[in-house]
Specification:
The complex is a heterodimer of chains A (about 80) and B (about 230). Chain A has about 80 residues and is an alpha+beta fold. Chain A has one domain: Mth169, Chain: A. In chain A, about 35% of the residues lie in helices and about 30% in strands. Chain A has a three-stranded antiparallel beta sheet with strand order 2-1-3, with helices on one face. The radius of gyration of chain A is 16 Å and the shape is elongated. The longest helix of chain B is centred in the N-terminal third of the chain and has 12 residues. Chain B is an alpha/beta fold. Chain B has one domain: Class I glutamine amidotransferase (GATase) domain (Rossmann fold, 3-Layer(aba) Sandwich). In chain B, helix 1 crosses helix 5. In chain B, helix 1 links the parallel strand 1 and strand 2. In chain B, the strands form two sheets. Chain B has a nine-stranded mixed beta sheet with strand order 2-1-3-4-11-10-9-6-7, with helices on both faces. The chains are: A alpha+beta (about 80), B alpha/beta (about 230).
C-alpha cells in the first residue's frame, strides 16, 4: 500500500537561524509582543509504496540521509500516517 | 592544461568562466553536461560554475551534488586532480562533502551583488601560488547563500591547517566585521581541501579577469593554476 509520510526538518540547535530571526522581528513589529522566539524549518510530504509503515519510515529515513537533510546543520523527524 | 566546466540545469556562470580561462590562458576548455558519467580524458581541472543549479531548491547545491557527473568529479579529486567550485559550485562541493562546512543564507537575508575585497591567506596552493601572501584582491560576489559555517572545532581545525585561502577584508586588508558582506564565520570567502587540490570560493574570479569588465585581479588566479600544472602538478 501507499503510505503518506511526513518529514519535518529543522536546523539543529546552535545553527544560526537567520530566517527565524527575521520572521520573529517582523512579528514583533506587528505587535505580537508575547513572542519569544521563531524557528523556521521545512515540511516535506512523501508517498511511499511499501508493505508496512515501518518499512516506509525506514525508506523515508534513507531519503533524508541521501538528499533531503544536510546532517551538518539539520535534524529531522518522520511521521507515517496510520502508524 | 585541459579544463572541464560542468554545466547543471540552472548554471549561469559557465560561459563567463569558459571565457575567462580561454582569454587569460588560451587553453582548452570542454563543457560537460551534468548527466555525463565521465569527464573528458586528460582533464586537469574541473570547474563547477556559479548559478542556481536546480533552482536552488531544497538547499543550494544539494541536488547538483547528486548529479551523475559528480561521481567522476569526486574520483578526479580523489586522484589529486584539481577541482574549483565558484559560488554555486562551492555550495555543490560542500553538499557533495568534497569540502567541509555549509553555506547558509546571508545574514542580511538579501542577495548581495557587488565588488568585494579579499585577502589572500594561503599562497601555497595550486590556485594562488602567483599571489603575494596577504595581497588584497577585488572579485565581485553575487549570492544569497554565502555565509560559510561549520562547527567550532572543525573551524579551528580548518584555520590551523591553513585551509582558509580567501578572507573578506577591507581595501586595506583588514578582515574584520566591516569587511564581511554576508556574516561568514571568520570572514571566510574561500577554502581548500586538506590535500590541497579542491578549492571552493564564493567570489567570482572569472568576473575580474578583464580590464573591460572592471578588474584583472582574477588573472593571477588562472595563471597560478597553469603554473602549477606546468611544473608537473596533476
Amino acid at each position: 500500500m501507499v503510505h503518506h509520510v511526513h518529514v519535518f526538518i529543522q536546523l539543529k540547535d546552535g545553527v544560526l537561524d537567520i530566517q527565524g530571526k527575521a520572521v520573529a522581528h517582523s512579528l514583533l513589529s506587528l505587535g505580537h509582543s508575547s513572542l519569544q522566539s521563531v524557528k523556521v524549518g521545512k515540511y516535506i510530504q512523501l508517498w511511499i509504496e511499501s508493505e508496512t509503515a515501518a518499512s516506509a519510515k525506514e525508506q523515508a529515513s534513507a531519503m533524508c540521509d541521501d538528499l533531503l537533510v544536510n546532517g551538518i546543520i539539520e535534524q529531522f523527524r518522520i511521521e507515517v500516517e496510520g502508524e | 592544461m585541459k579544463t572541464a566546466v560542468v554545466i547543471f540545469p540552472g548554471s549561469n556562470c559557465d560561459q563567463d568562466v569558459i571565457h575567462a580561462v580561454r582569454t587569460t590562458l588560451g587553453t582548452e576548455v570542454a563543457e560537460v553536461w551534468h548527466r555525463e558519467n565521465d569527464l573528458p580524458s586528460g582533464t586537469d581541472l574541473v570547474i563547477l560554475p556559479g548559478g542556481f543549479s536546480y533552482g536552488d531548491y531544497l538547499r543550494s547545491g544539494a541536488m547538483a551534488a547528486r548529479s551523475p557527473v559528480m561521481k567522476s568529479v569526486a574520483r578526479h579529486g580523489g586522484k589529486g586532480g584539481l577541482i574549483l567550485g565558484i559560488c554555486n559550485g562551492f555550495q555543490v562541493l560542500t553538499e557533495a562533502r568534497l569540502l567541509p562546512g555549509v553555506l547558509l543564507p546571508n545574514r542580511t537575508l538579501s542577495f548581495i551583488c557587488r565588488p568585494c575585497f579579499l585577502r589572500v591567506e594561503n599562497t601555497a596552493t595550486p590556485f594562488t601560488n602567483r599571489f603575494p601572501k596577504g595581497q588584497v584582491v577585488q572579485f565581485p560576489i553575487a549570492h544569497g547563500d554565502g555565509l560559510y559555517s561549520l562547527p567550532e572545532d572543525e573551524l579551528k581545525a580548518l584555520e590551523d591547517r591553513g585551509g582558509v585561502v580567501f578572507r573578506y577584508a577591507s581595501p586595506e586588508g583588514i578582515a574584520d566585521d566591516n569587511g564581511n558582506p554576508n556574516g561568514s564565520l571568520n570572514n571566510i570567502a574561500g577554502i581548500i581541501s586538506p590535500e590541497g587540490n579542491i578549492l571552493g570560493l564564493m567570489p567570482h574570479p572569472e568576473r575580474a579577469s578583464e580590464a573591460l569588465l572592471g578588474g584583472e585581479d582574477g588573472c593571477l588566479f588562472w595563471q597560478s593554476i597553469l603554473s602549477f600544472l606546468e611544473k608537473g602538478g596533476r
